[in-house]
Amino acid sequence: MQEFVELTLGGISDGMIYAAVGLSLVLIWRGTRVLNYAQGGMAMFTSYIAIVVIDAGGSYWLGFVIALASGLLLGAALERVVVRPTAGKPPLNAVIVTIGLLILIEGAAGIIYGSKNRSFPAAYSIVGAKVGNFALGPGSSPTAIFTAASVLAAAGLLALLFRFTPVGLRMRASAFSATVAQLMGVRVGRMTTLGWALAGLIGALAGMLVTPQTFLYPNSMDSIFVLGFTAAVIGGLDSPIGAIVGGLILGVLLNYVTGYVGSNLPELAGLAILVLVLMFRPSGLFASAATRQV
Amino acid sequence: MTEAASLAVTDVVAGYGSVAVLNGVSITVRPGTITAVLGANGAGKTTLLRTISGFVRTRGGRVTLDDVSLTKLAPDHIARIGVAHVPEGQGVITELTVEENLKLGLLLRSRADRAAALNDIYGRFAILADRRRRLASTLSGGERQILVIARALLSAPRVLLLDEPSLGLAPRMVAQVLDLIRRLRDEAGLTVLLVEQNARGALSIADRGVVLNLGKVVAEADADALAADVQLRQHYLGF
Questions:
Q1: Which residue of B has its CA nearest to A290?
Q2: B135: confidence class by pLDDT, cuts 50, 70, 90
Q3: Are B92 and A180 within 8 A, CB to CB?
Q4: Smallest CA–CA separation between B148 and chain A, in Å?
Q5: What is the pLDDT of residue B60?
Q6: B20: closest CA among B73, B63, B58, B69?
Q7: Chain A with chain B: Cβ pairs closer than 8 A
Q8: What are phi and psi of B35, to 5 degrees?
Q9: Reduced to 3 states, what is the DSSP secondary structure of residue B44?
Q10: Nearest-CA distance A259 → chain B (Å)
Q11: Cα torsion B157, B160, B161, B164: sign
């Protein structure tokens, strides 16, 4: 029983990180039908920026804020400079460009920061809570709670932005029908840039939350990216809520695999889930069955 | 409604790929009037509207709204200047609610009178008021047409481009829509360019009529004169 609770709580905490990566992918996919393979690499890079700030004597929170702000700027800049020219071209162009970006960013990180593993601070203590003699495990630590709370808060703020603000309405209109959005005077290109910026911010958040577990090195986000992508695919790639739920399902499942099957299996299990979902439910578990009506 | 504007299309050549659909079209729409553009399928009516709103690039000639050239501007820019284009059959964002679709129009209007404008539209179209919280995908074809027209009106346009607004509407709805367009001209001085297959209905509310055939203007006159021209009617308009 104790192991089950530990694994479940740990799974929720890990799952929120996959959810954040998945959410960042959904934000871009929804608006532009581009899968951003560089999302993990961008998050790795902003984590390096954070550690530089922290090592230079800034506080953890200063590094945290600067990482998120850099994610925002990086996302906007990459969309505007590198990805925009692929609009209207065959979809493979954007795929090649974002994979190229990933290689470039990881290479640049290796050149600038070196390729050795660096330890990375967590926001709070990683010691799990206890109820009497009943240990709840690391999934109940202050850091795990902060992880879940910050991802949920980010997702909630995004939902409010989309639902209740003019810019959110413009972003949704651009994502659903660029032509109609243009007819209504919306600057669709700006909305796309904003979508990439927000995705960069959420990705940077995921990087800050996961790197204390993985250590920091140029490829440190690669496997997290795959799991985040799996979370987004479980949710249908189109649905922000789907990405969150997909992340939670994936996190908990993988933790059970780690605990009950074998501790070296979760990455393999993650890939197996990805393949299974793509084979049997390619539009995800939560897709609204919306073949667009025109 | 903002001040009425005049729309001028001068010697416009435009089309898709290497095919020119419009071959030197010139049309002037005076402020506060309705001009009906008539003609058979393939005459270039829809292309004319898409050229004015910037979705089709001109290869020659120019389009101006009052003294502002629209010729090289992007569609969203043209929309912000005050040209509202209601495309044929589509234009509803089905993933948004009815009210969210309407709000897209309101965003082009000054903040102060948004609420009043929305209430006014709900007063005119009870069907939209009843369904404001529903997804637009739940509306019928006719209801969607009403929604798109209402959304264009909410943007406080200086010129309204309507592409087959009566297509797919029940006869009672057609009368209601045509009547609304007429009232918008009479009460608010709106400038309208109206493309219609329903030539009789369009000419009944229009001030001027233009007949397009194979990308050229073949007739242009006051609406009642066009409607009275038996030969023209039989040849081009089919009524």
A1: B95
A2: very high
A3: yes
A4: 10
A5: 92
A6: B58
A7: 66
A8: -115, 125
A9: coil
A10: 42
A11: positive
A256-276 residue pLDDT tens:
999 998 888 888 899 999 999
Report how far residue A38's alpha carbon sits from residue A222's, in angstroms, rounded to the nearest whole number. Answer: 9
Taking the C-alpha atoms of residue B122 and residue B166, their distance in angstroms, rounded to an integer, is 20
Residues in chain A with CB shorter than 8 Å from the CB of B94 are 176, 292-293
Cβ–Cβ contacts within 10 Å for residue A36, how many?
31
* Exposure on the CB side of residue B157, measured as CA atoms within 13 A: 33
Residues 176-195 of A with CB under 8 A from B: 176-177, 179-188
Cβ under 8 Å to B: A residues 39-68: none
User: Radius of gyration (Cα) for chain A, nearest Å?
Assistant: 19
Interface residue A167 vs chain B (CB under 8 A): no
Cβ contact A293:A246 at 8 Å: no
Residue B168 has pLDDT above 80, yes or no: no
State which residue of chain A sits closest to B80, comparing Cα positions. A185
User: What ipTM describes this predicted complex?
Assistant: 0.89
**Closest approach of chain B CAs to the CA of A171, in angstroms?**
11
Number of Cβ within 10 Å of residue A276's Cβ equals 12
Helix H or strand E segment including B236: none
Complete domains list, chain A, with CATH: 2-280 (1.10.3470)
DSSP string covering A96-117: HHHHHHHHHHHHHHHHHH-SS-
At B209 the three-state DSSP class reads strand
- Which comes out higher in pLDDT, residue A135 or A247? A247
Residue carrying structure tokens 């996959």: A18
Q: Are A25 and A39 in contact (CB under 8 A)?
A: yes
Closest by alpha carbon to B84, among B140, B135, B150, B33?
A: B150
The string of pLDDT tens digits covering residues A54-88 is 999 889 999 999 999 999 999 999 999 999 999 88
Q: Is A55 exposed, middle or buried (0-12, 13-18, 19+ CB in 10 A)?
A: exposed
Residues of chain B with Cβ-Cβ distance to A166 below 8 Å are 103, 107
Domains, chain B, with CATH or none = 7-93+141-149+157-237 (3.40.50.300)
In a 3-state reduction of DSSP, which class is residue A23? helix
Task: Name chain A contacts of B56, Cβ cutoff 8 Å.
Answer: none
Parallel/antiparallel/unpaired status of strands A129-131 and A134-137: antiparallel
Beta-carbon separation of A184 and B92 below 8 A: no
**Which residue's entry shows tokens 């953890």?**
A60
A166: nearest CA in chain B?
B107
Give dist(CA A278, CA A290) in Å, integer: 17
